[in-house]
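Hi W., the WTA complex you wanted:
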Amino acid sequence: MEVRETLQLRSFAEYKEAYQKSVENPEEFWDAIAEKFYWHKKWDKTLEWDFTKPEVKWFQGGKLNITENCLDRHLDKLGNKTAIIWEPNNPDEESRHITYRQLFVKVSRFANVLKNNGIKKGDRVCIYMPMIPELAIAMLACARIGAIHSIVFAGFSSSAIASRINDSSCKMLITANEVYRGSKPVKLKEMCDEALKNTPTVQTVIVYRRTVEPTPMTPGRDKFWFEELQKAEKECPAEVMDAEDVLFILYTSGSTGKPKGMVHTIGGYMVYTTYTFANVFQCDHFAPTGVKNQSKPKSDVYWCTADIGWITGHSYIVYGPLAAGVTTVMFEGVPSYPDYGRFWEICDKLDVTHFYTAPTAIRALAKQSLDLVNKHDLNSLKVLGSVGEPINDEAWHWYNDNIGKGNSPIVDTWWQTETGGIMISPLAGITPTRPTFATLPLPGIQPVLMDEEGKEIPFKSQKSEGRLAIKYPWPSMARTIYGDHQRYKDVYFSAYDKMYFTGDGAYRDATGNYRITGRVDDVVIVSGHNLGTAPIENAINEHLSVAESAIVGFPHDIKGTALYAYVTLHENQIGDDELRAKIREQVSNTIGPIAKPDKVQFVEGLPKTRSGKIMRRILRKIASKDTSNLGDTSTLLNPDVVKDIMENAL
Ligand code: WTA
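Structure:
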């Protein structure tokens, strides 16, 4: 039996039983699951934890390598099964099908490239690559030799790359020369070269040539992927790692200017992402009730449209699906190229059975003509997924009716970079779905709602709303923030005693289903991307004409939330369209195009409390055109500015 099958729950009753066991006897519960994986040595202690420090350790003393679980162990039975199907940006270019055996060989060989270039266990390697199989190969190669990967989304700007490289002192950078996203070329190597001016720790840059364009190379430092591969041995035994050794660092936004390098460790991350992948999506399992193609003999094709630069791609394009031995699709392009039917064209072409995307994409696609959907055969689809932000009712129904044709369950998966894996979600075809609800916690997850006073709202079969916290550790939770454990404690473990605070608000119905209502802190989710307001404000404030700024989110019909900037200028500066454009440009250059504010309003002053804190609540209301209930503004330091801001609102 494959590992995936041994992990899958098969009915609502089995889910309930597993959930109960996971709460009553968590260690026994996780022991039984972890035993399904390949370990060099079994762990001595399942769990040690203390949320006051905070410290969490899973499977201590266990020895393993995650790539042996993703690759080596499949070779016997699944060696010839397709591991990755790669779909290029340009539909005229050929797809690539890479079997588990081929992927094993490619990863081993590239692991030797890393070694030949001086990378050792524990070294940090930054990866800034487009969505090509080599990105997955590079990350798995790091894991093979025990190096720590830090992937930076290839839409980030050079200063964002540099600050992430410097934060964790990366020794190597792996990138590609350029890539096409839609009809636009993205010059990745140029972006890297700019970053590399300020990254003293990087000794080597490996460059994958994705296009034939000439690539500027710095002799001694920059090396081509293919040339290095020629010199590398084929075989690379996996480094035997401790369960609590670091697998990767992934940066996420926070409420200060500095991104947080979330640290994930090997054993718990592997166990949890694989377990949740197997159960939420139910790939290659019996066909869930009511779904199509029950007799189709082909194995499932799972496609998550996220970028590997985000946690969704780490956990549910690469590690989870590969450890489960499933075929995973990687798409290089964008949903709108060559037209807005591209996703559906790919589902049709590759016989995709599981399709996992973000509400922002669904909303953008729902605005297009239905002909773009209906001209493709979507009969292969069995399960649909949603991730990254709350899915609104309209988008949920459009997805359900037009893509799932009413009989593919939608798994609305709530989780975070920090949680490593899916926390609250239906299990496809097994537990009930409910529009706009992430529904029930996965086994092992103990969510709680907290009230205004910081007290737990007990579950007594009544509807309630509050802030979402988790009161017991789970295997894939981030262990710390790289280089700043105090910040980890402050951000996640100080809001409530002995609990992990998620930063999200949530509603719970009378049967215990959760619906996530959105962030309650200074993080704004734009098109499913997590953006901190502070770094954007810092970028704006760097403009010489700007005195101060405040960023808030406002509702947007495609992005979900878009950014609204309130900006005050230094004396004698003129707030015109030219300056607006420059401010947006500045944000784009410092952080990336995704962080550009949609609206920039020049204001005389920002509303502040007497202690000098910007009252974002008021700004949020004005940006959302909801000024009926601004609350008492008379206690502000400068109540007059509110009227001016309202009158000139965009
Ligand atoms: C939001 C993405 C509602 C939430 C995996 C969370 C969601 C933040 C959902 C984490 C969902 C994610 N429903 N909200 N299904 N999934 N979120 O770290 O606010 O990029 O805290 O991880 O996205 O974003 P991150």
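The CA atoms of residues 75 and 101 lie 6 Å apart.

W.
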